[in-house]
Amino acid sequence: MQGWHTTFLGMRELPRDISDFEMKAFFTFDGAEREAINARRGDAHKLGLALHIGFLRMSGRLLYAFRVVPVALWRHLSEELGIATPEVASLRTLYGREKTLFDHQQLACTVLGFRWMSEHQRRSLVRELRDEVARCADRDQLLVRARQWLYKNKLVIVHERAIRSLIANALTQLEAETGAAIAAGVDPAVLDRWRASVAELRPDGQTQQSWLWASPAKHSTRQISEVLERIDLLYALDVHKHLTDIPDLILRRYGRAQHHPAKRNLAADHGSSDGHNAAHHQVNWVLAAVERRAKMAVERGFWSAACGKIVCQVWRKS
Length: 318
What we know:
Layout: H1 20-26, H2 31-38, H3 43-59, H4 71-81, H5 88-94, H6 98-112, H7 119-133, H8 139-152, H9 160-185, H10 188-199, H11 208-213, H12 221-236, H13 248-257, H14 261-273, H15 275-299, H16 302-317
C-alpha cells in the first residue's frame, strides 16, 4: 500500500474534492470488475455499482452516504463505462430501496475479495496491535495501523469505535503481561516494600504515591530540592536495580497516565480490592515516576538549571 493511500482508509463518505490521479487509482476498473458492472441492468445500476467498487477500494469501507458525489467523479465514471451521465438524484432514488444498496455493497465486496472480520481474525488483529503498542504509544497512530492491517488482509474496515476498543484490549493485554513480568522479575519482599512505601503518609497528609505524581510548578530552588528528594526516595527503594528490561515506551505511557485522573482512580481501585494487583499498579506508578523524572532532566535541561541555581545559592551563602 502506498503511503498516500492511508489518508483515505476508514472514510465514511466520498471526499468533496478528488483529483484526476485519485479517480484513476480507485475508479478505473479491470476486466472482472467491468464485467460485473456491465452485468447490471440500466445505467444507474452500473454507475452505482462502479461507485461502490471504487469507494471500497479507496477506503476499505462500504458506502452508505450519498450526500456528496463530486461532479468530476460522476463524469469520470460515465466516461469510464461509456454511458450517458444521469442526474445524481437518480442515484439517491435508486438506493431508496435498501435491498438494492445491500446487493451493490455485497457485489463490491465479492468483486474485490473483501469480507467481514471473523472472531479468529479479530484475535489476530488484537495480537498484531499488542506487538505494536510495545513500540508505539500514540492511539491515533495505532488506529491507522489497524486500518492498514484490515485493508491489507482484505477485511472491511469497521467503525472507529470498534477499532479503538480493540486497541484498548491490546493495551490491557500488554499491561497484564507487564504486571506478570514485574511479579516474576522482582522478589515479593521487594514488591511489598515498594507497596508499603508508596502508601505511607507524608507530613502534609498526602501519600507518597501522590507526592511522586506531583510535577514541579517551576524551576525554583524549592522545587529542585523536592525533585531531588523524590529521586533519593526512589534510589533508596532500589527501583533502579530492577526491571531494566521493560521498554522506555511503556514507562513513558505510565508517566503520562499520571496526569489522567480516571487512570489514577483505576489504579487506586485495584489497590483497594486486590493486594496482588495493587503491587503491580503501585510498582508501575513508581516506575513511571522514575521515567518521568529522568526524561524531564534530559529533555528540559533540568539538571543544568538545578546545578546552576544550587551553585548560585551556595555562592551567596558563602
